[in-house]
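Quick one: co-fold with adenosine monophosphate.
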Amino acid sequence: MAQLYSAPKGTADLLGDSARAWDFLQDSARAVFTRYGYQSIYTPLFEHTEVFTRGIGEATDVVGKEMYTFEDRGGRSLTLRPENTAGVVRAAIQAHLTDNNAAAKLFYTGPMFRYERPQKGRQRQFYQIGAEGLGLNTAAADAEMIMMLWEYFTTLGLQRTSMRLLVNSMGDETCRPAYREQLAQFIRENDAALCKDCKRRADTNPLRAFDCKNEACVAVMDSAPLLADVLCDDCREHNDAVLQLLDAAGLKYQLDPRLVRGLDYYTRTVFEVQVDHGLGAQNALGGGGRYDGLFQDLGGKPTPCIGFAIGAERTVLALQAQGATVAADTGLLVYVAAATDLQRDAAFTLTMQLRSRGLTVLCDLQNRSLKSQFKQADRAQAHYVLIVGEEETTRGGVTLRNMETKEERFVTLGSVVKTLTSERQ
Ligand code: AMP
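Sure, here it is.
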């Protein structure tokens, strides 16, 4: 017997409910984001490694520890995308999408790859939904992005009260460098109490120490200096304007001066949506921010941008924890059953006719008995079964069975479609 294989550690097959959930998340993203003027973009699942090392930053956990990097047969160093902002920006530069101050609003859905320790809500291949507003520099662009993220989660069915929107400003090249030094100094002064990662961060990426989950580090970082206190005038003005727009829209947020996002490229506005229940430590459903320096990091012209990424697995877990239905409404489903072998062809023909009228219709393709066709219809959660029998055929119709009420009645072939669609309303 040949060896049986299972999916690699940290990956999962999406089938049944989880496939339906992913469809639901993607369909809802398209529906919401399209209304904000976003269009799809599909970039490769792998890029030249430098797109990520330069884009995300050498000192980040993602680049330092988590990338799936390999050499292809042509000797190129390639990396499976750990996130998609760098890839989208690379594509936008390549296609000149933002030349002459043009803006581009793009969204994507798809798998990302990070070599992390798998746990609930954390996988090695996971799925993200993201949006990138390229060439946009106003506070209104930031507010729109945050509102779109929030609307997406509420459209999926997450209760507003179960979510927390955190907002912060990470400053820019005017105010951040001095602050970074001040924070690095603070970390060095307190390094006896910090974990070895945070000690290292003083030199590489001090802001990331705010993200450490280690209790001792959290306690130290509680008294660390905050960037919010030393923002330059432009950053403060921008931040105030964003918050004003959120206030005007009635969107509740919490200012979190310790919110720093894991990737190096963020400037000014950053935000995250978290939930309290169902996710444990991995409580961030999604987040993002402004990244005005990334185009230049990747060789492009200075281009202000803002975006977010949502974790699909965590969003599904959060929806399930709230008892929400994590699937699109499939609409009316009809099953056409043949009473005996003699009606199989007629049942098949009727199935095709109903499909051509726009209905979703199943029929048996395995020569099953009537009883097992009913079981199949039940399992598929068909709303109606149309029974094609000898007697019905003589009378020019079918028996219509309502699977919920179990009522049955005769309908003529000419009125089947009308009956089905009107019953459903
Ligand atoms: P990031 O790209 O790190 O900002 O992550 C954006 C979102 O993607 C997070 O809020 C998570 O919901 C999700 N995410 C990040 N890493 C993973 C992972 N390893 N497994 C599952 N979801 C993830």
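If it helps, The pocket of adenosine monophosphate is lined by residues 83, 114, 116, 121-123, 126, 128, 261-262, 284-287, 309, 311, 313-314 (CB under 6 Å).
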